Request: fold
Amino acid sequence: MTQQLHQTMGQQYGRRSWAEPWKIKMVEPIRMIGGAQRAAALEEAGYNTFLLPSEDVYIDLLTDSGTSAMSDRQWAGLMLGDESYAGSRNFYHLEEAVRTYYGYTYLIPTHQGRGAEHLISQALIRPGHVIPGNMYFTTTRAHQEMAGGAFVDVIIDAAHDPADPHPFKGNVDLDKLTALIERVGADRIPYVSLAGTVNMAGGQPVSMANVKALRELCDRYGIAVYLDATRMAENAFFIQEREEGYADTPIAAILREFCSYTDGAWMSAKKDNLVNIGGWLAVNDEDVAEQARNMVVVYEGLHTYGGMAGRDMEAVAIGIGESVEDDYMRARIGQVRYLGDLLADWDIPVVRPIGGHAVFLDARRIYEHLPQDRFPAQTLAAQLYLDSGIRSMERGIVSAGRDPETGDHRYPKLELVRLTIPRRVYTQAHMDVVAEAVKAVYDQRAEARGLEMIYEPRQLRFFQARFRPFSG
Ligand code: F0G
Reply:
C-alpha cells in the first residue's frame, strides 16, 4: 500500500530522493582560509595533502577512515566503558556483535586495521610465500611483504580500466588465480587476500557468485580465504542492488552469507564500523586465533582489548549494528553517488561505476599531457586544495611505491585522486561545493606542470613524501 503510494508519487514528480535517516544534533565549525594562506600551507606541506594541518582544510575528503560521525547511541556507549585491564564487558559486546553480523568464532581486537593485518600476516605467511589478492592495498601488502611474502594481483582486468562499467569490478579472476596456483604450487599460498569493496580499484564490489566460486576453487587446493572486511557492509549493498536474487535480502544477511565463504577477516573498524579508532581480527580456526592471541599481547595489548579502550570497543559494537541498516547504507552510498554523478554529468573523467566510499578522479585522463613520473594525481590533489581548501588523496604512482626487487617505481594503470566521503559528516551542499571546485580545477587542466619528489620515505612513502613544483 505505502509502496504503491510512493510509486504513484514518484511518477507524478518524476523522481524520488533518498535522505539521511538521521538529523544533526551537534555541529563542528569549518572554514576556508584565504588563497595566499592555502598556497603557503601547501608549500609548507611539501605538496602532500597528508602533511597539511587539518585546520587549514575546509572540506576534508582525505579519507573515510576514523572520520565518521558517531551516533548518539555510540556516544552514550562510551559512557559505559569498562576500563578493566582484563575481561572488559565491552570486549564481550564486541565479540557478540562480530559473531552476530560477521559470523566468525574468535575475536582478537586491535588498535586499528593494520594491527590486525600484522597479526594475520605474521601468523600465516612465511618467507617465499605468495599471497594472491584482488588488487593490493598499501598497508595490507606492506605487512604481507614484511612477513616474507610476495603479493600477486589476481583481480579481473576490468578493475584496471577506470571506464569499464562492470558491476563487480572487485571480482577475483579465477583463471588468473588457477594459473598462479599451478605455477607456484598450493603449498606456497597460505591464503587468498580478498577485499570487499576494493579500495584502490575505486571502491568496487565483489559479487556473491565470485566469492562462492573462489571458495570452491580454494577448497580444491586446500587454500584458505581471508577477507579484508573494512568496507564489506558497503559491498553487501552493491550485491543487494545488482546481483540476481538479493534484491529483497537485507544487507545484514548478505554480509553474513558473504563472510561464511571465508575463513576469517581483518577489519579497520574506522570505516564501515563507524568509529574514530579501532580494529579487529576474527577467525574460525582455533590455531590461527591462538597464534594471533600470542602476538597481540606483544604488539597491541591484552587479548581482550588489543589497543582499544573499553569505551572504544563499545562504540565499535554499536557501530557494527548501525552499519548494516539498509536505510543508512542507501543514504551513505547515495551521497557518494550524488557527487560522482555530478562530475560525470560534466564529463569530468571519474572511475565508473561510482564505488562505495569515494569518487575517484582519473588524473591520467585529466592531465593527459603529464607523464606518470610527474605525479599527475599528486598534482591534481594539490590543485584542488589550492582552489578551495578541499583535501583529497593521491592513489597512483606515489601510493604504489617501489618494487622491492628492482627498486624502480611501480607504474600502476590507475592514477587516481580519491575524494573520500566520511560517513554521516557532510551534507549535499558540501558535495555541490566539492563538485564545483573539481570543475574549476578541471577547466584549468592545461596549465598543470606536475611535481618532483624531493623526499621519499622507505615505507609507505605516500604518507610522508615531499614534493615541489616541477622545474625542468
Ligand atoms: N584495508 C583497507 C581496505 C583499508 O582501506 C585500510 C585503511 C586498511 C586495511 C588499514 O586499516 O588504517 O585502520 O590501519 N585505509 C585508510 C584509507 C588509511 O584512507 O583508505 P587502518
Summary: The mean pLDDT is 96. Residues 326-345 form the longest helix (20 residues). Residues 75 and 166 are 39 Å apart (CA to CA). The chain has two domains: 3-60+326-469, 72-323.
